[in-house]
Amino acid sequence: MEESVITEAANGAIALAAGTAQEVKSMFHLDELASYLTWANLAKVVTSVVAILIFWVFYRIIRHFVKKTASKTLQKKTVSIIVKAISYCFYILIVMYVLGLFGIKLSAIWGAAGIAGVAIGFAAQTSVSNLISGLFVVTDKAMKIGDFIEVDGISGTVDTIGIISIKIHTVDNQLVRIPNSTIINSKLTNYSALPYRRYVFETSVDYGSDFDKAMEAAKTVPARCPTVVLDKPEYEPKVVWTTHGDSGVNLNIIVWSKREDFLQTKSDVSLNTLKAFAEANVNIPFNRVDVTILDDKTVPKVSRG
Known about the structure:
The chain is of the alpha+beta class. The protein folds into 4 domains: about 35 residues; about 80 residues, Orthogonal Bundle (Helix Hairpins), CATH 1.10.287.1260; about 50 residues, Roll (SH3 type barrels), CATH 2.30.30; about 80 residues, Alpha-Beta Plaits, CATH 3.30.70. It has 10 helices and 8 strands. The strands form 2 sheets. The protein has a 5-stranded antiparallel β-sheet. A 3-stranded antiparallel β-sheet has the order 6-8-7, with helices on one face.
């Protein structure tokens, strides 16, 4: 009798343990996990880890390169936004890669992303265009903060370079915002990119002047100007006759100066040309107007009806 009781108790304990184990397996999905713990899936896990490590190395290299390059032309805030965007793209690609590696179909996700992308693109096509153009502006390195540029007829000094637009202040101290798409689609002139600038001063000599004297006088002008470059053969000043005008022969005085001395050079060349021609008795033609004063006798009478 006692043996049967003990046997029944043991069987009940075994059944209870078996039921508890089954409940634990069901609760934690141990059977499903065991089915995934195969050599094939283990190889996928190892492959994923190795691939993620490789992607991580490339991501760090690209991030460092972009950060270093963008820091030369962009503000810190803009650089931070670009770096964050790169990080988000990396994380999304890693998640998509891992899901696809384990057989999870991404067609629905890609489809939804495509539809959302089209909708967003139509809604913000101008901003997207400026954003993409901003990437070209940054990588093109056609300008930097502090450069004096001209875009679409507007000139000024660059204050900020953003991923959507740049901001400049004009010579009369007006703030102008220029979208990046305008910069890409228009002609950009950077007056600060190179250390030297050329200036061509156009003048004219009267037909009755001594042209040899005029040429010699014009050749003395560059030496009279302190900011004109005289010691570099590639920037040697030149004086050339150009065309025959209505009142005289046109003459060009071509000089070079440092970028920061350009305005002073223009003023010096203009003034010293007048002085040199006056000393050599060379006349610069100008329009003359003949005025005749009529008295009352010569003015015809007009009858009024």
